[in-house]
Amino acid sequence: MGEAYIVEAVRTPVGRRRGGLAAVHPADLGAHVLTALLERSGADPAAVDDVIMGCVDAVGPQSGNIARTAWLAAGLPEEVPGVTVDRQCGSSQQAVHFAAQAVLSGTQDLVVAGGVQNMSQIPIAFAALGATEPLGLTDGPFAGSTGWRARYGDAPVDQFHGAERIAAEWGITRRDQEEFALTSHRRAVRALDGGRFARETVPYGEVTADEGPRRDTDLERMAALPPVLPGGTITAACSSQISDGAAALLIAGERAVRDHGLTPRARIHHLSVRGEDPLRMLSAPIPATAHALRRTGLKPADLDLVEINEAFAPVVLAWLKETGTDPERVNVNGGAIALGHPLGATGARLMTTLVHELERVGGRFGLQTMCEGGGQANVTIVERL
Description:
Residues 263-384 form the Thiolase C-terminal domain. The chain is α/β, with parallel strands linked by helices. It has helices at residues 26-41, 66-73, 91-105, 146-152, 159-169, 174-193, 219-223, 254-260, 285-296, 313-323, 336-339, 343-361, and strands spanning 5-11, 15-16, 50-54, 82-85, 110-118, 243-252, 266-275, 305-308, 365-372, 376-384.
């Protein structure tokens, strides 16, 4: 078996809901990063075997196979195909996995992987259903399934209840969550002010930097927010932000690197995906990480950096408790609580940030994981070259 290399990785700034990217068509967001990816890598667009992009809630302007639409909107060769992946929040991380697997199998040599999401235009919670509250068994994708009801009963199935279940099971208080959220904002502001995102970010018009980090937030303001669920601990301050954005990576095999004179920046060391309790939903990164470390023989101390998606603060806090990983190596430039979570793009955004940050600090191994709807989690371990 050969190798799968990351040659280039770019992203747009992450726009806030109704912010600077809100009116941009998702295909144009995707086209923007695809164009920049190929320009920076120097790869011949005609040599690309496939374009795989993640997108969640593929309706309206995100429907019709946005990967293909974005490629064509960028003016790139018509003979190159595209396919859109939906593994919920892990969609574009799964796109990277599929691209790497194609290269590792030898069936393809050069694949673009990425993701796009405009949540200002297509809100979360199944906009087509008109939902404005967390979805339960009666009005979500499980409605009418006798098999689901027989297995899991009538318990509500949504991320808010899942996050509360994690907080209760791992003994994570609201104050714990708020302190974690404040750290996320402070780290993101430090990264922005220090230019840490400059190399990975491709400005879109007047949007030149991530719009989510809040410089003026504090624990007092967070404590004044109402919980999402009555009597709960989860508030908007401890949750990922609704956002818009896109990201893309170029994955190449050894032959493509040789034939096209490409310069790899990182190697895919490991990739896997695991499932867990769909009611708790968001805790799957814990067993998924344990699985990946067993398979590779690595220990948490071997990881120079970790990017774990901050869907909700308890997700990361529970993962930290279970893995014993040094918090100073985790989400060092902030996470989705501060930077935002454009669902279908976040996996590729995290991977882009991970590769660039490994280069900045001179680290060797970086791990990425994220919770996903249905109680799933992808894990990717990359090695900087």
